[in-house]
C-alpha cells in the first residue's frame, strides 16, 4: 500500500483484493516489512469499530516489535490521546477533546474562513494560475487550526514551517525536524495558555483548564490529534472536492441534468463516500487471537479499516444508494465509527464548505491546468491526497481585505 501504483489507482487495488483474497479481510504491507490486515467489508468494519474490548486502539504491544525508523510510526505510534487508548484513559482524553472542540463557535466559521482565504487568494489572483493545494488549501486549513487553537502569529509560523516539512516535498527541512519544530511550538503555546487561559476564545485554553487535569504532554497529544488528523484530512477534503467539482459536468455552470443545483455540500458528501481523504485509518490491535469472518487475526497486530473500500463495498453499495449518485447521502464511514468516531465532523464540513465556496466566489472561472489523468497522487498507505492541483483562470485584481 506504500507503492506509488496503489496511490495512483487505489480502487482498482481494492477490487483486486476482493477478487484474489478474502471478501472482508486482506493481508497488506503498510511499509516494507510492516504487515497488517486491511478491512474492506462495511459490515466487518462496523463490528470492529464498535468492539473496543476485543479490538482496542492501543499500539504499544505492536510498536516495540518494529524498527524505530519505520515510516508509518509517525502516524501509528502511541500518544496519550483518545484515539490511541481504550477504556478509562480513552474516556478521560476524549472528554477533554470533545469539550475543547464543542467550544468552537461554528456560527463564526464563515467569517473566519473568509478572513484567512482572501489574503491567500490575493497572492495568486493576479497571476491567472495557482496550485490549489500549496497556494490555498495548505495555508487555509493550517491558519484555521491556528486560530481555533489560539496560536499567536509567531508560534503559528513555527507550526506552519513544521507542517510543511512533514507534508510538503519542497521543504528544506526533514520530516523529523518538522516534528521537532511543531512540538517546540505547541509546548510554548501550552505554557502561554496555562499562564493566561481564555477558554471562551480558544481550544487550547479549554484543554488546559478541563477537569481531566491533563499534563503538558497530554495537552500536546490532544493538540497533535487536532493538527495531525485535522490538517491532513481537511486540506485533502478541500482539494479532492475541488477536483471533483472542476472535473465533473454535474457541478459545472452548464453541466448535466443538475446544473448548479448540486451544492458544495453534495460534492463533499460524494468525495467522502467515494474517495475519502483519510482512505485507510482507524488502527486496531486485537488483544488475543480472534476469528473474524472465518479468518484468524493475530494478537497485537494492526488491523486497519479501509474507509474507502468499505464505503464502496458491493454488499452495501446498491442497498445504500441504488442510483449511485450519493446525492444527500451521508451513510459513509469517512469519519470512522464507534467510540473513536471523529468528534470534529460538523466542524470539518463547515470549514471545507466555506473554504470552497469562498474560492469559487472569488475565482469563478477556474479550470484544471492539466488533464485529470495527469494529476499525481501522493504515495502512502493512509491518505488520498493530490501532490498538487494546478488551475488556470482569467487574471483578477486583488480583493479588499476586511
Radius of gyration: 21 Å
- Helix and strand string, N-terminal first? HHEEHHHHHEHHHHHHEEEEHHHEE
Q: How much strand?
A: 5-15%
In CATH, the homologous superfamily goes by the name Cytochrome P450
Structure annotation, total helices: 16
Query: Oligomeric status of the shown chains?
Result: single chain
Mean pLDDT score: 90
Structural class: alpha+beta
Count of domains:
1
CATH class: Mainly Alpha
pLDDT under 50 segments (min length 5)? 253-260
Record field, number of beta strands: 9
Fraction of residues in helix: 40-55%
CATH architecture: Orthogonal Bundle
Euclidean distance between termini CA atoms: 45 Å
Reported for the largest beta sheet, the result is: 4 strands, mixed
Query: Could you say what the CATH topology is called?
Result: Cytochrome p450
Strands ordered across the widest β-sheet: 1-2-7-4
Shape descriptor reads globular
Quick overview of this protein structure:
With 402 residues, the chain is α+β, with helices and mostly antiparallel strands. It has 16 helices and 9 strands. The chain has a single domain (4-150, 198-392), classed as Cytochrome P450 (Cytochrome p450, Orthogonal Bundle).
Detailed description of the structure:
The termini are far apart. Helix 7 runs antiparallel to helix 8 (132-148), helix 7 (109-124) packs across helix 16 (345-362) and helix 12 (216-247) crosses helix 13 (264-274). The protein is built from 16 helices and nine strands. The relative contact order is 0.18. It is globular. The protein has one domain: Cytochrome p450 (Orthogonal Bundle). The model is unreliable at 253-260 (pLDDT under 50). It is an alpha+beta fold and 402 residues long. A four-stranded mixed sheet has the order 1-2-7-4. A three-stranded antiparallel sheet has the order 3-9-8. The protein has helices at residues 4-8, 10-20, 42-49, 60-63, 73-76, 88-102, 109-124, 132-148, 153-167, 175-195, 203-208, 216-247, 264-274, 307-311, 314-320, 345-362; strands at residues 25-31, 34-39, 129-131, 280-284, 290-292, 295-297, 303-306, 367-368, 390-392.
